[in-house]
Amino acid sequence: QVQLVESGGGLVQAGESLRLACAASRSSLSFATMGWYRQAPGKQRELVATIARSGRTNYADFMNGRFTISRDNAKNTVYLQMNSLEPDDTAVYYCSAREFSAVVYWGQGTQVTVSS
Questions:
Q1: Whole-angstrom Cα distance, residue 3 to residue 34?
Q2: For labelling alongside 40, which of 11, 28, 106, 112 has CA 20 to 30 A away?
């Protein structure tokens, strides 16, 4: 069973930055993609960003260049650098990893709260 452990969430003020990390229990290069999703209270889970095995990245439109996804293969870890945070970014952020077979694994989530 694949384990994904997120860290780095917290409470910040609008305009500040956070970096989330997701450590996988096996090589990050063994997955087709890894990525971040988020779910705000009363809303559906939505895509934030993904990074493919090839290194190709994909971002949700609402990022407006504020977030950057990256990967450290030596540490089997995917990061989400979040800058210029806004109150609307408040959500639980989930790490995901998708196999080439389309099986998806999820982390337990980390809370990000942005105060105005």
A1: 13
A2: 28
